[in-house]
Amino acid sequence: MQYARPDQQTLTQADLFHNALMATRMEHSRFSCAIPQQPATAPADEPEYGYSEISLQGAARQCLQWLAPVLRDLSNSAAPRWLTLIDPPASLSNQWLRSADLDPSRIMIVRSKPGMDATKLCCDLLKLGCSHTVVSWLSPDSSTAPRLERAAQSGQCRSLNIRLQAA
Predict the structure, then answer these.
(1) Does domain 48-162 sit in CATH 3.40.190.10?
(2) CB of 133 within 8 A of CB of 126?
């Protein structure tokens, strides 16, 4: 869904959410999201909250074909929260999601603005806890994984980083 702006630009619903999120000056603890209470004992098939990474090598189109079943499984989660994609490749659009049999209404795509720290944005979204999984396309350094791990634990969600490497 797109919304017209007075200067004739259009924004998608995810852009509007992102802009509203970045415009707020509230602390993370004051931002309210419905975070389900963690059960006393987690089911055996349910992975814990935290950070994971997948490394794919090949052409971007081929990597997205390998990634589609993972995203489909995550988007079909019974969790009531979003599957959030931060800075996915440009070819990963709502049209691609539909063609890969994914439900775009359960997926929020967030693109950082130029000059914005994508790792900090990812950590902020993880800490909010509005997503069951936040998928990112970051080039992590040695400090990125621990930061994402802590943020995911804080927001009771999962962080999945996709590392795409050209063949």
Answers:
(1) no
(2) no
